[in-house]
Amino acid sequence: MNRKPNRLAMLVQYGILLVFSVIALYPIWFVILASGRAGQRLYTFNLLGMFIPTEWSFENYQKVIAGNPAVGDPPFLTWLQNSFFVAGSTTVACLLIATSAAFAFSRFRFRGRELGLILFLAFQSFPGVLSLVPVAQLLTAMGLYKSHLGLILAYTSGTLVFTTYLMKGYFDTIPMDLEEAGMIDGCGPVQSFLLIALPLARPALAVTALFAFMAGWGEYILASVLVPAPEEMKTAMVGMYRIANEVNIPWGEFAAGTVIIIIPVLIVFLYLQRFLQGGLTLGGVKG
Amino acid sequence: MISWTGRRKALTVLAFIAPTLLGLLVFNIYPILFNTYISVTNRNQFHPNPDCSVTLTSLLEPTCWEVFKRGAPTGLGTPFRPQDPIYENYTDLLSGLADANAFWALLRLLLCFAPLAVAGRVNARLDRQISRSIASGWVWLGGLAGLFALAALLDAGGAYDTITKSGDFLVVMFRTLLYVIACVPVFFGVALLLALILDNAHIRFKAIFRVIMIIPWAASNVAIIMSLVWQFFFREQGTINQVLAQVGIKGPTYLNDPNWAFVAIVLVQVWYTYPFMMTVILGALQAIAPEQYEAAEVDGASYWDRLTHITLPLIRPAVLPAVVLSSITTFQMFGTVWAMTGGGPTRGAGTPGATELVMVYAYKQVFQTQSYGRMGAFAVVMFVLLFAATLYSLRVTQITKGAYE
């Protein structure tokens, strides 16, 4: 296809790309602008101020980061810490559990394998909102209500099916030859899993870790039901939602908090996005 | 193939999958069993507590288990017990359908979609011909025309009104289906358009544009706070109205208007979802061998011909499962709506609001009205539907799997 491109068609295409770039960026840009506006309002009546920074102060950031919870400032850093701990633990647990199950489903042929895979998906389709009550009751009975451990358990099992499928899809694409060679040299299944398959599956591991972490970092419903109080136990999402539903909403602080929560997500996501395409088309979607 | 037999193999396999099985048993299978049991009881705010002398209750209710007994609640109200008749919650939920009028209206609505099914069938048959006599686009267009003709003929609007008066369940079900039908084509269209442009060899700065386009996907991970931001654009003095005011138009308060609120949650869902579709489509596009286009060009095929005869059929295997998958997640959408409208605006207390999709409805019923028994039945019905959808998506994936190998 070495034809010279039609100039008008190219212009239209660039135009479409630009318009959608603006749409994709604007909401994030909007919060960044709002976070730099002094006073507790998210928007301004100065139209220009909705698009370019006409004023800027770090007041909101100061309040969010160095606020004093004793006078009623939200304990934002504690929330962030909680979220990080919960999401991080979920990621580690998920990587340990899901990859081993995925390896078993990909490499071993055993009775009930096909059925198990289908049932996994089927059980997963039970809507999460509706299993809240039994899960909450169970965790309460186990004494894990209002504890991060309960939340981690719930998150981990919630992401298990998806991550197992993702990893299995990737293991399926790795040829078996290396492991067979390993077996001839006396490699057991555990060794061939840890020493051969896992290092080869690094892109899929990255995607799995990303999804597991995000599942914990951004989840709201479970966290709001399982750890509704006290303030210093909440995760960032629950805390932010609470701020946004107060009587006098401190929107400035909300915006600053949102920026602090979203920027790491963006960085990690954009850094790992080169893996996304391969990881998804090979694993998740193909099933 | 790792192939040894006997106990050693069984133990190894078990060791690999035991943690996953345990997790699923506790957090997936147990809630399903529990919910199914609750769905045949009259548990609600007046009968919240278990009666541990009933066998099934003592088996399924954690507070009845010996280990956990210390925390058993013994509050006000009588303990819940099985309904009489046992399927009471289900008939309560679906009672609207027992009414002949509503049932007829539902049939009429479903009948309106028959032309589309027929079009699909006709297309499948035409595909088997060596040279197609009619292009697939025309058949689909015919099906669509049939849909609108039938809708007018059978008074679909009236039928919809009848159904919305026949009980919450059907209302929220229909609204959610409408939501999915509105969202999926839009985000698919946007994703396809962007993917086609980004796959164009002549476009420069592709990497930068791709990174920018993926931002909403990253933002969708924190959907609850991002949606809180989004609702600001739709406020009376929000970005949209401020821009409109510059050209002299006074926009409404979008989220207080039932129709606009619905449009708003569709737009936001499209914003969250198109990057995923775009990534999938791009991956599929890049797998198409350029020789095929060159051959088509030699044969004098136009851009449109190449799109409909090469591109679309070849990306179908990868894209179809993704479409089904995102339809299911759109159906189950909760956070975005919850943060933006909370299910409102409502016409009156007790009726579901204009953006109250199934999951929002369920959440409200469980945590605000505490009608556990009724919602148990709701959960079981939802589960059956979603289970069927999942099996269908699995079949689609299985069918299209061969395309890669």
Elements of chain A, N to C (H/E): HHHHHHHHHHHH
Q: Give the rounded overall mean pLDDT of chain A.
A: 83
User: Considering DSSP H and I runs of 4 or more, what fraction of the residues of chain A is helical?
Assistant: over 70%
Which class of the largest domain in chain A in CATH terms? Mainly Alpha
The CATH top-level class label of the largest domain in chain B: Mainly Alpha
Question: At the fourth CATH level, what is the homologous superfamily of the largest domain in chain B?
Answer: MetI-like
Largest sheet of chain A: none
Q: What is the end-to-end distance of chain A?
A: 34 Å
- The CATH homologous superfamily of the largest domain in chain A corresponds to MetI-like
Low-confidence stretches of chain A: 282-287
Biggest interface between chains: A-B, 101 and 111 residues
Helix count, DSSP H or I runs of 4 or more residues of chain B: 17
* Low-confidence sequence ranges of chain B: none
Question: What gyration radius of chain B follows from the Cα positions, in whole Å?
Answer: 26 Å
Give the name of the CATH architecture of the largest domain in chain A.
Orthogonal Bundle
Oligomeric assembly = heterodimer
Structural class estimated from helices and strands of chain A: mainly alpha
Report on the structure:
The complex is a heterodimer of chains A (287) and B (405). With 287 residues, chain A is an all-alpha fold. Chain A has 2 domains: 7-69, no CATH class; 72-284, Orthogonal Bundle (MetI-like fold), CATH 1.10.3720.10. In chain A, 70% of the residues lie in helices and 0% in strands. Chain A is built from 12 helices and no strands. In chain A, helix 2 (59-66) packs across helix 12 and helix 3 runs parallel beside helix 6. Chain A is globular and about 70 Å long. Chain B is mainly α. Chain B folds into 3 domains: 8-71, no CATH class; 100-165, no CATH class; 168-404, MetI-like (MetI-like fold). Chain B is 70% helix and 0% strand. Chain B has 17 helices and no strands. In chain B, helix 8 (168-199) packs across helix 12 (258-286), helix 8 runs antiparallel to helix 14 and helix 14 runs antiparallel to helix 17. Chain B starts with 6 loop residues before the first helix and ends with a helix. The model of chain B has no long low-confidence stretch (mean pLDDT 82). Chains A and B meet through helix 1, helix 3, helix 4, helix 5 and helix 6 of A and helix 1, helix 8, helix 9, helix 10 and helix 11 of B.
